[in-house]
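Researcher: Go.
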Amino acid sequence: MNTERRPGEEADAIDVLTRLSALLPPRRAAEFGQLLADHRAEHGAAALRTDVSAHRRLARLAASLPPAAEVVADADLLAALSEATALADPSLYQTFLSHYTLCVGSLVLLGGKAADPDGALAHARTKGSFLVTEIGDAGSHLGIRTEARFDPARRAFTLHTPDHRAAKFSSVAALGLPQQAVVCARLLTGAQNGGVFSFLVDITGADGRPAPGVSVSGPLPVGALPLPYGLVRFHGARIPYDRWLADGAGIDATGVLHDPQPSADARLQRTLSCGQGLWATLPSAMAGLAGRSAAMAWRFSAGRRSHGRLAPGSPVLEYRTQQHAVVGALAAAFSLRCTARAALSTWAGLRAARPSDGPGTAMTFSPWAAVDRSLALYKAHSTRAVADLVDSLQHRCGVSGLFDHNRLPGYLGFARAFDNAGGDNTLILLDAGRALAEERARPDRRSAGPGRFPSDQGRFPADPTDAAWWPAVVTALQDRLADDLAAAASARTEALRRSLHRSPHRSLHRDLDLWNPLLEDALELGDVQARRLAAEAAVEGSTAHRRGWPVPQAADLAALDGLRQARCLAGPLLATGVLTPSAVRALPAAMDALCDRLRQALPDIVAALDPGAGLARTALDEPDYAAALLAAHGASAGASAGASAGSSTGSSDRTGSTS
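Model: Structure:
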């Protein structure tokens, strides 16, 4: 760890390599950046079984970093490293995340650092993974079936997969180098079911072959993140006692488990709390992708003319639709950066606080919102927002947005993959929506009634281009939806009570009968709750004067992103009466006004929001895109001659295709 960090601009800079130079010794930061820049992933799925390149690259990166536990303990460094690897290569980010944030993060959180006595994980000589998902059932995190059976005679555990449906899933199918994983399993001792704990398990030995009692399937290619994913099963694999990440629990001489956590759900929450590090730092990676994608799309559009008959030869950015998409993406990138900083701040508060005695949000659909609702919502919002943003920009860049070397396809696949990975977004939003509705149903939280949103919108700033307008609107929408859902749940509860009184054996799943018709409403409320958190972060970021990150017209960017989201939520805003039809019809004109106000500052805004031009530059960034693309991809020797003679036959590249 760099104990002599440079204060001031470098520590808060948007450029991720500049930030790393303040968080690491400068020579180490330069080495790390060079290693990332030297590689572009080009291996195919056919080679995944023997492809250990991700492991070797991880080890090379680790050589320029402090020991892994120190990286995990430094939230700013972990976030910057996550962002840099995601920008350079999303599949490398997944390897980095699994090793540092989840595997080593579990050791740090749960008191298992002694399980790595020779530092193999600390310096990535052994690749670490995290195995929690079981492939056969939905919501497997709430019903983990892998068993760690305690053997009192040997004071050790044996790990068992009860059947094929409980096989674990992770990127472990490339054999040949040593691998370990933190495995989440149900601890059984005698007749006692101790709940879900984590165990550090050898997946392969020093020779790279599966360890005794472990079987690994062939690779399961995932195009969005090309890594050697596979299924893992355990057949009595032995785990020494000190590889149990006990987190203060213990098993006495008689084989009885003593756990300071008061319930099975509280134990599961603690075991999965390593997810906090993921949710706190993943928004930084997503913000990096958003800023890089928006900057590329703006530079590409700024140098592009349209031959449409409305105004032949006009820049494409003269068209309002292109402005709303591209300048709107810059606004979204600003808001996502503010969300990333809010997530890191929230995590810092959680780390400084005493661990809770149990989940504050019920584990209904998944454990994630119970681990920490705000962080889980930051994760869900960031990943979905970036997927939508990159998808839109890919379309706005035409065929150039589909070229792998222009990075947008890889960034889009990465963002979409994390809709499920790292905690399923739909389940997070369902739990968050249900929890908020139940909170609103308490007598001390009830609202004043249906008249609290007057039709003249006196509750909101009059000008929708005011940065404070959207946070007020989305908060009002959240409150209305929460009250409506709470009222609907209360009415259904009473109806079910009467029905069950008449027919006591009618249903074995009262909660499902209650919530099943309301799930779409709970999902919508969870999404709006996440948007409210992001809106608050954006307006705070637009008014704070942060050293090292001066963004021109930050308030206008926050306002423009708010208007984008208001248009997306026009239906709920109208249905709840939060906005009137005339207010919704006025949103495009307000966006036009903000685009006009931002026009002159856009080059400086792009420079302020682009975190990786030096790390992940593409032809889209160049003033002459066509020339840059040809230069980067080797125009054939006859191309220039053909071009000078006439372009009717098109130009050919080395693949033989014509343009």
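Model: Confidence is low (pLDDT under 50) at residues 41-46, 447-457, 637-659.
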